[in-house]
Design a protein that fits this description.
The chain has 260 residues and is α/β, with parallel strands linked by helices. It contains nine helices and eight strands. The longest helix has 21 residues.
């Protein structure tokens, strides 16, 4: 909305911090007190949910997820849907992407599920739980621009998130076939939507380049050009399970067949 001339109040800026200007001698608008009350109520709600450590709804979590362009949290939310779609194929899972310790830890708590993780960047500043997964061999660091250190069909399902968006097509041509090679029942890709927030400046040195979020049309064309076949059966089951559980993804999700 455009600012009205002579309005003595300044609206919220990009930083989200309200600022009230100096008193004006002009007669204030009768709507000003109402606006201030509404603004105060909004700020109080935000404080209660973010500042006091209270739980937030899935809708609010989605907003934060989409704003930050992170799909790792989306993978955790989607695990029950993935289990419905893939069934026994969730018995031996490899997750590839940043913060993979959180995914592996959650998967290991699922019944009849084994899980491993590949962190494509580094494992600095991780907690004791993650270090324990590394010591036990569930976690490792590997540059996904090069061949993965696994034999063909080592895992039933490979899930990748927050990693492919940082690769140029040149490296995607090597990485995606590798993900398909080490899986036996499929590859699930979680990718950000175009327009999502790019990586923070502090992350650029870690990722080497800002994220490039591509449209679903771009991905589908890329899969066809590189003979990567969509797993239509799994995709259909995933959609059906999503409808039953009222699950609405905050990231693009693609289901590919493995190379046989």
């Amino acid at each position: 909305m455009s600012r009205r001339p002579g309005n003595p109040s300044r609206r919220i800026g990009e930083g989200g911090i309200p600022f009230i200007g100096s008193h004006s001698k002009a007669r204030p608008s009768p709507l000003l007190p109402i606006g201030l009350v509404v603004l105060g109520a909004v700020l109080l709600i935000v404080y209660c949910y973010s500042g006091s450590g209270g739980q937030i709804s899935e809708t609010e979590a989605f907003s934060k997820l989409e704003g930050g362009g992170s799909c790792t949290g989306e993978v955790q939310r989607a695990i029950p849907i993935l289990k419905k779609a893939y069934g026994d194929s969730m018995r031996k899972v490899l997750h590839v992407g940043p913060d993979t310790c959180s995914i592996v830890s959650k998967l290991l708590k699922e019944e009849e599920t084994e899980a491993w993780g590949v962190e494509p960047y580094d494992l600095d500043d991780v907690d004791a739980s993650c270090k324990g997964l590394v010591r036990k061999g569930f976690m490792r660091v590997a540059d996904i621009k090069f061949p993965l250190p696994y034999r063909a069909k080592s895992f039933s399902l490979v899930i990748v998130s927050d990693a492919l968006d940082y690769l140029s097509p040149r490296y995607l041509n090597k990485t995606l076939p590798e993900l398909a090679r080490v899986s036996s029942d499929g590859v699930v890709i979680f990718s950000g939507y175009p327009g999502q927030q790019k990586a923070k400046v502090a992350e650029l040195s870690k990722f080497g380049r800002p994220a490039k979020f591509r449209s679903s049309t771009w991905w589908i064309r890329y899969f066809l050009q590189n003979s990567l076949e969509e797993n239509e059966a799994a995709s259909k089951k995933f959609e059906q399970a999503s409808v039953k559980r009222s699950y609405k993804p905050g990231c693009q999700i693609f289901h590919l067949k493995s190379n046989h």
